[in-house]
Write a structure and sequence with these properties.
2 copies of one chain form a homodimer.
Chain A: E1 2-6, H1 13-23, E2 30-34, E3 39-42, E4 48-51, E5 64-67, H2 73-76, H3 80-92, E6 95-98, H4 102-108, E7 116-117, E8 133-134, E9 139-142, E10 145-148, H5 153-166, H6 168-177, H7 196-226
Parallel strand pairs in A: 1-2, 1-5, 5-6, 6-10, 7-8
Antiparallel strand pairs in A: 3-4, 9-10
Helix pairs in contact in A: 1-5, 5-6
Chain lengths: 232, 232
């Protein structure tokens, strides 16, 4: 069971560490953290992860390609080296899992065209720019593509994926080992339930990042429309 | 806001990364990962964390001392260097947060005597050896001591702690940013709800580790009983 997870500067570490916790519980799982160079990669709040492989490391065939999100995914959407790597790995991986705004990176790689998908609640309005069919769900499974809501939704999505990879009983064992019977102390986990001032304040904090993402999404959508049709 | 988190070989990375995600969302939070040496520290499934400080680094005064768990906490229960560090930091920290079997490490340091506490469901029976009053809850707050159930319960406990440190609205904003409106795909997150064969299989997988923990807990309880009373 071989899994490659893209990591990058200013990743949201939990987009990676949540799925890592779940998927590493599958017997024989081997998880490679991939970036342009091996070595330390800092998450946007300062947690230091370590890349064990580069974009050149031969990791195929893959059971899972994992694409996390976070503020640092914005430049990846126009980084052809990273996008080519994602396309190549996705074309042969058994499953592709995008967590949080990792879905936008997949979108920029052209992998969401006509696929049902979701992402962090703050970015769902951007999915149509990539040709995706936005689904209002925490975890969306469309064929071999799994996309999830923000950050902690990666845990739910990975448990779904663990069941697809190794059966429901394995996923249930992992869930029990993780003591995953959550009791969020507040009703504030998504916009539908959060108090309005809380929602507005988080939305405002995200605004500069959201504007950047929108600008990139618009640029990419425009470029695609003005591209000559494939093969001509 | 200064936080010191103990890390160690064979930690369960999510005991650390869950709370990190929450607490790093507090404005001005500064989180130090502490081990005997700075540098890479491998979690029990292979994720590489990086210690940024040592037991000798002066980090006081602390707002939070975070003690995670995992298979690697067993030797810490008889590691006087680590236990002294925990005692010294805990004596001046505003809050002490133990996640998962981190509670057993606190217990070995003598910090659970007559305190209400919880831990991973597989280890709750060990808490009385440390003089703790076991409480059947996912998050237990006893004065400035917060203990949580296993692994993912660290997220719930940290959100409680964020509210204590910075108010409920801050905690709610962090919860919304993390999109923490969990939807576990199975009813298998704790022994009360897990299918019996799933529970039994996980219990069996834990057995060797549980035996080791029991042996240490018994040894420590015995040593304490045979110690001369303090001051004599």
């Amino acid at each position: 069971m071989r899994i490659a997870a893209l990591i990058f500067p200013d990743i949201d570490q939990m987009d990676l560490t949540g799925p890592f916790e779940v998927l590493s519980g599958i017997a024989g799982a081997e998880i490679h953290l991939v970036w342009k160079e091996t070595g330390p990669v800092r998450d946007y709040h300062g947690l230091v992860l370590t890349a064990s492989a580069t974009l050149e490391t031969n990791l195929d065939p893959l059971d899972v390609l994992l694409v996390p999100g976070g503020p640092g995914q914005v430049p990846l959407m126009e980084d052809e080296k990273v996008l080519s790597w994602i396309r190549a790995r996705a074309s042969q991986a058994r499953y592709v899992l995008a967590v949080c705004t990792g879905a936008l990176t997949l979108g920029a790689a052209g992998l969401l065209q006509d696929r049902r998908a979701t992402t962090h609640w703050n970015s769902t309005h951007l999915l149509p720019y990539f040709g995706a069919i936005t689904e209002d769900a925490r975890v969306v499974v469309d064929g071999n593509l799994i996309t999830t809501g923000g950050v902690t939704a990666g845990i739910d999505g990975s448990l779904h994926l663990a069941a697809l990879l190794s059966g429901e009983e394995t996923a249930q064992r992992i869930q029990l080992a993780m003591h995953y019977a959550p009791e969020p102390p507040f009703a504030s986990g998504d916009p539908a339930e959060a108090p309005k001032p809380v929602y507005e304040s988080v939305l405002e904090a995200y605004a500069p990042l959201t504007e950047k993402r929108l600008a990139v999404a618009q640029r990419l959508a425009m470029a695609q429309r003005t591209q000559p049709a494939a093969g001509h």
